[in-house]
Specification:
- About 20% of the residues lie in helices and about 15% in strands.
- The protein has one domain (about 10-250): Muramoyl-pentapeptide Carboxypeptidase, domain 2.
- By secondary structure, it is α+β, with helices and mostly antiparallel strands.
- A hairpin with a 2-residue loop joins strand 1 and strand 2 (about 90-95).
- The protein has helices at about 10-25, 35, 125-140, 200-215; strands at about 80-85, 90-95, 95, 100, 105, 125, 150, 180-185, 220, 235, 245-250.
- The strands form 4 sheets. It has a 4-stranded mixed β-sheet, covered by helices on one side. Strands 4-5-7 form a 3-stranded mixed β-sheet, with no helix packed on it.
- Helix 3 (about 125-140) crosses helix 4 (about 200-215).
- Mean pLDDT is about 80; it is low at about 1-40 and about 45-65.
Length: about 250
């Protein structure tokens, strides 16, 4: 059963009920759920999701200086997304697509070098998107005047391999909707990935990484030369991450 991306004149509760029923109950045939269930795109009018279980308190409020200039936050529907298998050998069932741009972010295509990222490179579980949007809003409220955060790849529409055949180095993980690449803020505030470590605003980058960790990231993979820190085992410095942090959340359904 396909859930259309655009649902005119249909109550959102009915749309969510259709999506959840498809995810949990199937369509009465022998197809696998991943072949039956399509997605519900994010919409500012959808239901508000719960905050991450380990979320820290926001260090700024809606009355903070500059906060009134931010557009309203987007909400994320809970549609029973399933992160099946492992991050390096899995699939995504009933995922959500992150919009190309939003009140606190833009997406960037690392292969075509343009905004926004292509549609089939920005899918995740409902929990990943709720977590991501929560942290991005927390970060921008606490850093008055900070530009939108630049987001890279998440997962493919149904998860699965996302290797070098999709361009560049590809991804070993990013297979079940629990991973997202977030580019470090630049000193010049340009909305594109930093091309060199010297272009990274390390103070803002550290603040952003720390907020992901504080909100419950399972892992935050950072570059070897950027000089970002955090709890050992959670914040890990690895190769090919000098321009972005690779954030992974735990599979809370397990």
């Amino acid at each position: 059963m396909l859930v259309p991306s655009h649902v005119p004149r249909m109550p959102i509760v009915a749309v969510l009920a259709t999506a959840i029923a498809a995810a949990l109950g199937g369509c009465g045939d022998d197809e696998q759920p991943v072949a039956q269930v399509r997605v519900l795109r994010l919409n500012p009018g959808t239901l508000v999701s719960k905050q991450p279980r380990r979320a820290t308190s926001v260090r700024a409020t809606l009355t903070s200086p500059g906060a009134h200039r931010l557009p309203p936050a987007m909400s994320v529907p809970q549609i029973g997304s399933v992160a099946a298998g492992a991050t390096n050998n899995g699939r995504l069932i009933n995922g959500l697509q992150l919009p190309g741009t939003g009140p606190d972010w833009v997406t960037y295509d690392p292969i075509l070098h343009r905004i926004p990222n292509r549609d089939d490179r920005r899918w995740g579980t409902d929990r990943l998107l709720a977590y991501l949007l929560y942290v991005l809003r927390d970060y921008r409220l606490a850093n008055a005047g900070a530009p939108p955060v630049v987001i890279g790849d998440l997962s493919r529409p149904f998860g699965g391999p996302f290797g070098s055949d999709f361009g560049g180095l590809g991804h070993v993980s990013h297979q079940n909707g629990l991973d997202v690449d977030v580019y470090y803020p630049r000193l010049d505030r340009t909305l594109q990935p930093p091309r060199a470590v010297a272009q990274v605003d390390r103070a803002l980058a550290q603040d952003l990484v720390s907020r992901f960790v504080g909100a419950g990231a399972q892992h935050a993979f950072v570059g070897l030369r950027v000089g970002l820190a955090g709890p050992p085992g959670i914040v890990q410095a690895i190769a090919h991450h000098d321009d972005h942090v690779h954030v992974r959340i735990a599979n809370w359904r397990r």
